[in-house]
Design goal:
alpha/beta; about 300 residues; two-stranded antiparallel sheet; single chain; 7-stranded mixed beta sheet
């Protein structure tokens, strides 16, 4: 019976031994970590060098240093092994069929059709994959992503990008104030946030997120008046039509016709339009086939 391992598996194990030696800066500690003898791990590193045809480590007495080629190989091997392990996890999920789901966090105030179009394409291609949608405001979605209760989220950017996540920029949208057509300000070609200080600002926000949303629109965007709230954009527009205030929207909202009772005025700071960046976020260590496939589909809808 031939018990020799296939060449690819043997090479992968040798690479892992090599990574452990470098990370521990010690053959003895790496051997302990890998549960083999020090002489065995030394032989495996030597076998890896023979396989590759170049030296990875320059041995000096009981110490060693990485050769230039070894340093390059080490850095690239980290990516290689991480990709291999992720591939194995994804394949195991598919084989078991017990985790065929995609959980998408969706910004409550966003009303563009891009997600709908991407979902139509995704579900047609993968009819067996369960798609779960979770709505929330910026901070609610960020919390869901951080606690891994969702796989990826469509969110606006309000903080610096983190290296812990894939930060896929989808679009940069101009912001508008939707206001009743009966309001005299509806005739303006553009409006600054401070010029709206005497008109209540109607925000789409859950009860739990009202204070956070108000703080963002007051300190970052610059609205200084009273704030009112709606559960969704449709409710906000009904309040606008009834003359209760204005609601901030962006380019994506233009796919939903506000009707003749509402005027949309560009929001500006001086002559510069106020914009909002929308992104798709997911954790790098949770990057899987379905996540990346849906991300590519969604990104294509913004061109």
């Amino acid at each position: 019976m031939n018990t020799e391992q296939p060449g690819g598996i043997r090479l992968l194990r040798q690479i892992r031994y090599f990574q452990s030696v470098v990370q521990n800066n010690s053959f003895s500690e790496a051997a302990e970590e890998c549960h083999i003898s020090q002489s065995a791990i030394s032989q495996q590193i030597k076998a890896l060098e023979n396989e590759l045809g170049f030296q990875l480590l320059e041995r000096k007495s009981r110490k060693f240093v990485l050769t230039p080629a070894g340093e390059h190989f080490y850095k690239k091997s980290l990516v290689l092994v991480a990709d291999y392990e992720q591939m194995c996890r994804e394949s195991a999920k598919i084989a078991r069929g017990d985790d065929a789901a995609l959980r998408i966090g969706y910004l409550r105030s966003y009303s563009g059709r891009e997600v709908q179009l991407a979902l139509e394409e995704f579900t047609e291609k993968y009819p067996g994959i369960s798609v779960q949608l979770m709505y929330g405001n910026h901070e609610e979605l960020f919390r869901l992503l951080r606690t891994e209760d969702t796989d990826l989220v469509l969110n606006d950017q309000r903080r610096a990008f983190s290296d812990e996540y894939v930060n896929l920029v989808l679009t940069t949208s101009s912001m508008y104030a939707e206001i009743s057509a009966r309001n005299p300000m509806a005739a303006l070609p553009s409006v600054a946030p401070q010029e709206l200080k005497n008109i209540p600002c109607i925000l789409v926000a859950s009860r739990e997120q009202r204070e956070i949303e108000q703080d963002y629109y007051r300190t970052v965007v610059g609205f200084q008046g009273e704030f009112l709230y709606a559960e969704n954009l449709e409710e906000a527009r009904l309040r606008v039509i009834s003359g209760q205030g204005f609601t901030p929207v962006d380019d994506g909202s233009q796919t939903m016709n506000p009707g003749t009772s509402i005027c949309r005025i560009p929001l500006c700071h001086g002559k510069e339009p106020i914009t909002r960046k929308y992104c798709l976020f997911w954790k790098k260590d949770n990057s899987g086939y379905y996540i990346e496939e849906f991300a590519e589909m969604l990104k294509s809808k913004f061109v």
